[in-house]
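Deviations from the work plan: none for this task. Representative record:
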Amino acid sequence: GQNIDQPTEMTATEGAIVQINCTYQTSGFNGLFWYQQHAGEAPTFLSYNVLDGLEEKGRFSSFLSRSKGYSYLLLKELQMKDSASYLCAVLSYNTDKLIFGTGTRLQVFP
Amino acid sequence: GAGVSQSPSNKVTEKGKDVELRCDPISGHTALYWYRQSLGQGLEFLIYFQGNSAPDKSGLPSDRFSAERTGGSVSTLTIQRTQQEDSAVYLCASSSGLAGAAEQFFGPGTRLTVL
């Protein structure tokens, strides 16, 4: 079976750093995606990791460890506009389907 | 078009009625996905089209749900005899379908409310 776990909610302060973790169990792994979804809007792509290590893109970084079935999304210099849900999704090599976690709702406070 | 479009943006219907939801993917994208998102929940995979291959229907929750994709472009998701538990946002996404370039681009969704 396939299972993706991430925390339901997190809070942080403007200007701070927050790390959102995602663990997964899946067959035929072909990469892990992070999407951002503001309330009432469609998800938008943030990052894609298929090899172990850290991918940095501006204030956002994503890390992957395939042996541990673990990823995290790191958000630096938090801004109020970063308040959103962050969805971890695993791409199955066998089926080309993205399996989504339930998402982590992040609230950034002043 | 520039992005994935969906129509209608909102649909209110009565229990037992049929509804059709439309998705226009990004031009040239061979892969098209339908998802369902209930309030406060993650995305639930429904169905996947890739080129001319038979669709992956493994996520459809019941035989009241069906989808087709005409001419490899526009897709329609049909829900027959709607039930209140069908109320959700239905999201469509498309991708180029190329290995290593599997980013999915999402449409704005259709919010379905079944009274």
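The radius of gyration of chain B is 13 Å.
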